[in-house]
Amino acid sequence: MVTSFVKPQVRQLAPYTLRPFRSEVKLDQNENPFGFPPELKEEFWRRLRARDWARYPEFQMETITQRLAQYVGLPVEWVLVGNGSNELFQSLFSVTLERGRVVILPVPTFTLYKLIAGILGAEVIELPLRREDFALDAERVNAEAQTHRATVVCLCSPNNPTGVAYPESDVRRIIEESGALVVIDEAYREFSHQDFRPLLEIYPNVVLLRTFSKAMAMAGLRVGYLLARPELVREVAKARLPYSLNHFSETAALVALDHLDVFHAQVQRLRQLREELFMALSAFNALSAYRSQANFILFETPRPPGEVFTHCIDRGVLLRDVSHYPLLERALRVSVGTAEENQRCINVLRELFG
Ligand SMILES: Cc1ncc(COP(=O)(O)O)c(C=O)c1O
C-alpha cells in the first residue's frame, strides 16, 4: 500500500475538512461580511500594477514586516509575517513539537492546532473548558503542563468556537506557572477589548498569532503574523517557506494598514450587530446563546444541530454545525453578518423555534 510510506501518526488523523455549501447568506467561517472596501481595492490595483510580477517578493519581506512592527509598536525583529496565521502555526509547531513532546489544548477550540501537532507526532492533551461558561481552568492547565513537562500550551482568545475571551489574570498564571511556551491565537482580538501584546515584553515564553483574515476582511488573501522574542522569531523563520507572502497579499496588507480607520469602523459596527444578534437569539426561549467577544456567536438548541443546520441551509442560510466538538453536542455557531444577513438567519430560526 502506497500509504505505508506515510507516518502512522498521520494516517490515524482525521483531516481538517469543510464541506462546501453554496448559500446566499454565508455565516459559517467568521469572515468580515462588509468585505474589502471598493475604493481600497482600487488603490490595491494601482499599487499592484506598479510591481514587477516577474520578480520574487523580498527575501526577508522587509517592507511589510517593518510596517507591521510600526503598527504593533515593537522592533522589527519581533515580527514574522506569513501566508495566513495557519502557516505560522505550522512553522512554530514544527520547530517546537515532535514525538515525545506534549502540547496542552483547552477544548473545544480551533481544530487545526491538534491536527498540526498530531502530524508532527507530538502528544496532544486536551483539557475541557468549564462546561457552564467555557471558562479556562488555569490551575488544571498548569498542573497538567507541569506533570507532563509540556512544551506548548495553546490558548485561543477570544476562543473559536465559544467566543470566550480568557481573563488576562488566567493567561498570566499559565505563562508564569506552566513552564511551557504559551501560544496565544489572537485571530479575533479586534472584536474584543483584549490585547496581549504587553505580555510579550514581560515574559519571554509568549507567542502571539494574528491574522488579516477576520477584522481586515482579507481571508482570501492569506496574511498572518507572529509576534515573539527575536531569538524565537529567528528559529521559527527557519521553518517558514521562502516567499510565502506573494505580491498580491503583501500589497493588500499594506493598503489595509494605511487605512486602519476603515476597518476600525467596520469592527465597531460588527460589535453592535453582534449585540443585536445575541439579543435576537436570546429572545427564543428554546435557544441558549453565549455572549461572545468575537465576530460569531455559539448557541445551543434542543433539536439535533444537524437538523437545524439542514433547515437553515435549505433556506439559504449557512451556519456552522459544531456539535462534533467536545462539550458542544447541542451547539451551532453563527458568524455576525450584515444586519440583513442576521435578520435572514433569525427568520429561518423562527420557523423552528418561534
Ligand atoms: C482561531 C483561529 N485561528 C486562525 C484562523 C485562521 O487564520 P488564517 O486565515 O490567518 O490562517 C481561524 C480561522 O477561522 C481561527 O478561527
Notes on the structure:
- The chain is an alpha/beta fold and 354 residues long.
- Helices cover 40% and strands 15% of the residues.
- The chain contains 13 helices and 13 strands.
- The protein has helices at 8-11, 38-49, 62-72, 85-96, 112-119, 138-147, 168-177, 197-202, 230-239, 247-257, 260-282, 305-314, 339-353, and strands at residues 25-26, 79-82, 102-107, 123-128, 152-156, 181-185, 206-211, 224-227, 288-289, 296-300, 317-318, 320-321, 331-335.
- The strands form three sheets. It has a seven-stranded mixed beta sheet with strand order 2-8-7-6-5-3-4, with helices on both faces.
- Helix 7 links the parallel strand 5 (152-156) and strand 6 (181-185).
- Helix 6 (138-147) packs parallel to helix 7 and helix 11 (260-282) runs parallel beside helix 13.
- It starts with 7 loop residues before the first helix and ends with a helix.
- The model has no long low-confidence stretch (mean pLDDT 97).
- The protein binds pyridoxal-5'-phosphate.
- Pyridoxal-5'-phosphate binds at residues 30, 84-86, 110, 156, 160, 185, 187, 211, 213, 219, 224.
